[in-house]
Amino acid sequence: MHFGVILPNYGAESSPAAIRRSAELAEELRYDSVWTTEHIIVGPEAVDPYGRVYDPLVTLGWIAGWTERVGLGTSIVLVPLHSPMHLAKQATTLQELSDGRFALGVGMGWHKDEYDFMGVEFEGRGRRADEAIRLMRALWNGETSFHGEHWSFENATSEPIPSKQPEIWVGGSSERALRRARELGDVWHPSRGSDADHVGRVKQQYPELRTIPRTSPENAEAMLGAGADGVVVQFPDEASMREFARRYRV
After folding, report:
1. How many separate domains does the chain show?
2. What is the rounded CA–CA span in Å between residue 100 and residue 63?
3. Which burial class, exposed, middle or buried, applies to 150 when counting CB atoms under 10 A from its CB (0-12, 13-18, 19+)?
4. Which of 214, 105, 124, 120 is nearest to 176 (CA)?
5. How do the pLDDT tens digits run along the chain, 250 residues long?
6. d(CA 204, CA 227)
């Protein structure tokens, strides 16, 4: 059973000190992992809570330097807003510098303003992300050529090759997200849009699919009862984090 902690790298009260306290406590209490959230630039409807966000990958690189055991992950990175070659390099670097503790949680995003601000087409983002995941895996395998609809290369080198490929945790609750998780990912990592009933139906249909949703402390038990293989929890404070660890014997 996997138990993770969402870090306060976003929201009005986010700060380096708060992030550090949460990560240190997660390591102390023997949680399996800590997770950062991504938004880059948002419009008015997403300002609360995504107007203030510390970059998820840079934050995890910082955490990797002063933690020893706890896993590190993104919940989630908005893949269509990144160059997959650059993202593959960042993921490899985090994986190697953390001694194999990194997992790349990926999602498509829902906030069209963010895409518009960055000059990225909103429509078709899922298809581009599927190709991006395939490209990243090709680079992690040491392949020197790749031919896709959006990206292609020949006789290319991108080293180092990760000693162990980062797991890819696929966010989203749609049928396309489930297909992506089953075909291209290692874990299905739903958040908004999936309650315990939905998780239970998916696990009945695909019992082999590792499922670790992002949820709240009060909904964790229902998710686990529905068949989830763990939960990544957003805690309101330190006391609830400690109580959860005691309750579930993390």
Report:
1. 1
2. 14
3. exposed
4. 124
5. 999 999 999 999 999 999 999 999 999 999 999 999 999 999 999 999 999 999 999 999 999 999 999 999 999 999 999 999 999 999 999 999 999 999 999 999 999 999 999 999 999 999 999 999 999 999 999 999 999 999 999 999 999 999 999 999 999 999 999 999 999 999 999 998 899 999 999 999 999 999 999 999 999 999 999 999 999 999 999 999 999 999 998 6
6. 8
**Tokens 């963010």 appear where?**
114
Q: In one letter, which amino acid is 87?
A: L
Joined tokens for residue 137:
């895996």
> Domain range for residue 207?
2-248
Determine the Cα angle at 218 with ends 242 and 74, to 5°.
Answer: 70
What is the Cα–Cα distance from 243 to 241, expressed in whole angstroms? Answer: 6
Q: Considering just the CA atoms, what is the radius of gyration of the chain in Å?
A: 18
Under 8 Å between Cβ of 93 and 157: no
Distance separating alpha carbons of residues 190 and 181, to the nearest angstrom: 10
- Could you tell me the CATH number of the domain that includes residue 115? 3.20.20.30
pTM of the predicted model over 0.85: yes
How is residue 154 written in tokens? 């020949």
